[in-house]
Amino acid sequence: MDSKTFRNSALFLRNGFQTDGVYGFPLIRKQEICLNSVELIACSDTRANDRNNTNKGVHFFTDDYRFMGTYDHPDRSLEKLRQYRFVLTPDFSLYSEMDPWRQIESIGKSRWVGAYWQSRGLIVIPTVSWAQPSSFRYCFDGIEKTSVVAVGMIGCKHERIAFMKGYNTMLDKIDPAAVICFGTPFPEMRGNIISVDYLSSRKVVRS
Questions:
Q1: CB of 142 closer than 8 Å to CB of 109
Q2: Where are the domains of the chain?
Q3: Which of 85, 113, 168, 193 is 20 to 30 A (C-alpha) from 11?
Q4: What is the structure's pLDDT at 158?
Q5: Phi and psi angles of residue 124, each rounded to the nearest 5 degrees, phi first
């Protein structure tokens, strides 16, 4: 590929979707989805021809290195993911220790992957995460209002006050129709919460 072709390629520009918010994140559209008996499987447990787990959604609440390819090489895992009921967007790390540009990058990558998957016919539920309060200015952008969203509780037990500030801000800004909660929710969490047990997501059925 010559430099001009590369410069104008879709995977270099990443500009093929409607954008939203102060940083122009790709917009993930609201989609209709049946939320009865929600089960999840980790992205690291997915495999080709996985006939026994097609009723599950795929989550990315795991180490970033396991799913970097969803952004770097988005077509490679597309057919494998297509066989599952739905996919959550990748949960690229959003640590408070990161400089703001890295946090913004993580959110932008997650939104782009979600928009790309939707353009290829997958049912997509955006994963919502946040860092310090200054991130609230942009970390809820790129998600259509009243969408179903997902949040992860792993590692939040000792950051309860900070988590709830972000969670309540998310409710105000997105007004989600439902919240798939990966892990045990805090009692004070409001909304239509669908709790998914962490350990049950690791019980993968294999033939």
A1: no
A2: 36-202
A3: 85
A4: 81
A5: -120, 130
